[in-house]
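Researcher: Good morning. I'm working through a list of sequences from a screen, and I'd like to move beyond sequence-only analysis. For each chain I'm collecting a predicted structure so we can compare shapes side by side. This is the next one on the list. No need for commentary yet; just the structure.
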Amino acid sequence: MEPSYLIARHLCDVLRKRGVFQLGPAATEAQAHDIVSDNAVQAVIFNAELREGTLAAVLAFRLAAWNIPSLLLTHLHLPQTHPLRRGRPQLIYPFLDHQLEQAVEALFAPPATASFWTTASADVP
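Model: Good morning. Structure tokens for this chain:
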């Protein structure tokens, strides 16, 4: 879920080149929820900030409840204890394509390797 269409398209292009199958982008939290609830989703990348100026708090809560790995994109550094983080990694704009690729790879890493992403307070290098 990304409020900017151009940024969303770029993110999708980067991930498609890495072989990631995508069901989005979704422009709203409701669209993202429909995609996630109607499909066998392995991971979700979403922006903390919605087009309407609100935060994607409901989606973040549902992803945590459904145990779906997710990556938070944001312009703001949010502490690990923030409700939007809920133990998930975040990338702070601006970031490079290879940083996105590394963060997505970590979402699919075995739990022993992925523990860095769920416990570290630092952002993706």
